[in-house]
Amino acid sequence: MDIDLVFKIAATGIIVAVLNQLLIRSGREDQAMMTTLAGLIVVLSMLVRQISDLFVLIKALFEL
Amino acid sequence: MVIFKLAAAAFVAVVLYLILKKEQPAFAFLVSAGAAAGLLLAAARQVEPLVGWLQLLDATLPGQEAGCLLRVLGVVLVAQLAADVCREGGMLAAATAAELCGRVLALMQALPMLQQLFDAYAGYLQ
């Protein structure tokens, strides 16, 4: 049961949320945006790998 | 029992989703998509022995219905996942389009079976 992916995504999300608030409060909105984008890209790459594993398994299982 | 682990995982994912929903909706959506993929992966691993048994059955049956049935099931499963992930993200039109694609492709997969049915039916009529 690979729940650790969900934990990784949530942890990244919380860190980005905190960093976002920190940067916005200190007046650096553009850097806050950059941090959010960077976090999104990291999480997306993890998620794409998980979903590709899922589709490979389904393709093998259902002879698609 | 696997079902308790899956239920606990789903529950934790919902809590994390709600935490992230206000601050970072993008990450909340990614958490829900990741949880959906993880749960479906676990379900697919659980259904593997059943599919093996169905393939065994397929060898004994005259036609190739079981293989066809399996493919339709796979197509519908993936299409439903895509449609629901789109709906989760708020894209209702894309969800409807994904569902329509799923139905059309499932029908395409089932065509050989329909063909067999019509051939058998035509045989009876003559």
UniProtKB/TrEMBL annotation, chain A:
Segments traversing the membrane = 6-24, 36-62
**Which Pfam families did the record assign?**
SpoIIIAC
**InterPro entries in UniProt:** Spore_III_AC, Spore_III_AC/AD
Is Ubl conjugation given among the entry's keywords? no
Alphabetical UniProt keywords: Membrane, Transmembrane, Transmembrane helix
Q: What is this protein called?
A: Stage III sporulation protein AC
- Give the source species: Candidatus Gemmiger excrementipullorum
